[in-house]
Amino acid sequence: MAPNKGKSRAHYTQPQPSDYETDAPQMDHPAPLPVRSTEELNLSAIRRHYPDVTSIQHVVHYAVLYTFSLEESRWEKAGVEGTLFICELVPSAAGAERYGVVMLNRRSLDNFYMEIVGPDGIELTDEYIIMQGDEVYGLWIFNEPNSSTAGMMTQTAAKIQELAARVEVSKAAAAQNTDTASVASDQVQSSVPMGRQLSLRELFGQQRTQDAAWSVVNHHNAHAGTPPQNSQPDMLAQLFMRAKQDYNNPG
């Protein structure tokens, strides 16, 4: 029999633990994403459709939009329902406050947007918050007694009316400031001469000054009975030419 051969055994060196953190493999961990609040998420979603929105003032979790049919004298569903937001908008060019109502539609991509232009045309009834624009709109608010939605319709109507009053006051103040600024600008413009134009009074006043200076200096040199001969060019013509040049070349 062939002699038994001893099996070779591999010898492994046990790694020694290290006290240095730099010996451990470094792993790159991505920075955690910032946590966004519900309001920030809602605002981001609204601004994708309406960039003028700057903040959310009031939220209704479920509302339905109706329009009033003049032909049939009844309310009809407009096909828009979902979360309703009352939002602050970018101020007007004159600096007046602006607010609007936005309803993101759960049924289609057709959302509802309407700017609040003032208290006129806003009314609260037993069923709807009525807002008059290009059509007569009715906002039906989910309002269940003995729940967190109790009183939501009244609260929403009060918020819309409050902001409508602020819009009216802000518009009036902005218009007054614009009128005041316009009057002040007109006064400044009227006080600034155009092209340094000289009046006839100023022209003849300068001519009289030149004549008086000539008579004081040169009247002793003039011959008796002989009209004084002025060696200088006509001063009045010079003044008119200078005024014309200043008018054509202002500044």
Automatic annotation (TrEMBL):
What SUPFAM superfamilies is this protein classified in? PH domain-like
Recorded GO MF terms: enzyme activator activity; mRNA binding
Q: Which InterPro entries match?
A: Dcp1, PH-like_dom_sf
Which CDD domains does this entry report, sorted A to Z?
EVH1-like_Dcp1
Keywords linked to the UniProt accession: Cytoplasm, mRNA processing
Extract the ranges annotated as region (Disordered).
Answer: 1-34
Show the ranges annotated as biased composition (Basic residues). Answer: 1-10
Query: Which Pfam families does the record match to this protein?
Result: DCP1
- Decide whether keyword Cytoplasm is in the record: yes
Q: GO cellular component terms?
A: P-body
The record's principal subcellular location, in a coarse class, is cytoplasm
Q: Family membership, please give it.
A: Belongs to the DCP1 family.
Q: Which named protein is this? A: PH domain-like protein
UniProt source species: Bimuria novae-zelandiae CBS 107.79
